[in-house]
Amino acid sequence: ATILMFTDLVYAAVVYGAPASARRLPVVTGLVTVAVSVGALAWYQEPWALLLGVLTGMVSFVPATTGAVVRNHRQAADAARLRAEQTALLAEMDRREAVVAERSRMARELHDMVAGHLSAIAIHSTAALSLDDADTSRDALGVIRENSVEGLAEMRRLISLLRDGGDSEEPAPAPTLAGLAALVRQAAANGAASGLAFTLTAPPQEEGLPAPVELAAYRIVQESLTNALKHADTGEVAVVVERADHALEVTVTSPYGRRAAAGPRAPGSGAGLVGMRERVALLGGEFEAGLAGGAAGRETWRVRAVLPVAKDDKEPSP
Question: Is this model's pTM higher than 0.70 or not?
Fold first, then answer.
C-alpha cells in the first residue's frame, strides 16, 4: 500500500504539479534509478543486484515518465482547442466584417440609385401643391411619373440582384461614363422648375477604364446632381470630367446661397457625402467637398474627386 501511494504521489506531482517540478521529477527519478542500479551492483557484485535498480525505477521513474506523457498530451489537447477557438473567433470576425462591408455597399448603391428620383418627386410634388396652375401641375406630374417609374425599375433590379445572390449568369451592367449625358439631361429636366441649368464637360468616351472607376465617377456625379437639386441656389451646375496622368478627375460645382424666394426643396439625410467619400477611399483616391469662390464673388459648392487609374489596371480593349 505504501509503494502504491508513493507511485501515485509521483504520478500526481508530475501531472498536476508546477511546470518546473513536472520537468525535474522524470530526470531526478531517472538519475536515482541509475545510481541505485550502479551502487547495488558495485556493493553486492552479483547480477541479481540489478533488480534493486529495476524496483527503484518501477516505483519512481515509471510513474514520473507516465505522468510526463499524460501531461504533454493534455497540454497538446489544450493548445489545439485554443487554436480551434481562435480560428473560430477570427472566422466570425471576418464574417461580421464582410457583412458590414456588404451592408455599406448596398446602402451606397441604394442611396445613389433612388435618392435622385425621390428628390425630384419631392420637389415637383411640392411645386404642384404650392402653385395653382394647371400647366405647372401637369408638367410636375409628368416628371413625377417619369422618376417614379425609373426609380421603381432600379429598385426592382437591385432587389432581383439581392434575391439571386449574384448567381445569375448575366449580371446587371454597371453604369459607365457613357451615361453621364443622359444623367445630366434628366437632372436638367428635374431642376428646371427650381431655376437650375446643368452643363457637362467630358472628354470622348475612353476605352479601357476600370469598371470600379467608371462606377464611382458615375455615382459621384449622380449624387452631386441630387444634392444640387436639393440645396443649390438658382444658377448653373457644371459637371467636368477630365483625364489626368494615371487618374480620372471629377468636379461638380453648383451655386451656393439662399434665395429670397426659394423654390421647393427636398430634405437631405447627410449620407450622400459619406457615400462619395467611401467610394473614393476604396479606390485610394482623393475627395473634397466644400465652399469655393465663384464668378462675381459668388460662392459655389464644389465636389472634387480624383480616382487613380494605374496603367496595369486598364481593361484590354475588345
Answer: no
